[in-house]
Amino acid sequence: MIDPDEFAETMAEISNTHMPFGKYGPGQCPPKGLPIYELPFEYLEWFQYNGGLPGGRLGELLELVYHIKKDGAGEVFAPLRLKARGGLKKKHKPPQQYRFE
To answer: Which residue range forms the structural domain that includes residue 76?
Structure first.
């Protein structure tokens, strides 16, 4: 069983962690790099099969993000995306209506 408080802390840490190097690091995604929850699954998978994830806490968080996405539970990151956008949802155009007479 997952401790809800621990899960909330981990999700907060994931939301505040940005990729510090590489293709999605600050050099390519200024100013801080891409948030790790936004990393493409294929990029995380590449790490898994090419030498492994980095060590330390960053590696642990990346592995968690990888497994969440691998298991198809990526929607768990939707609240983080919403918060990052300032709480604004994308505006959708109303569906087009057609009249046939």
So the answer is: 4-84
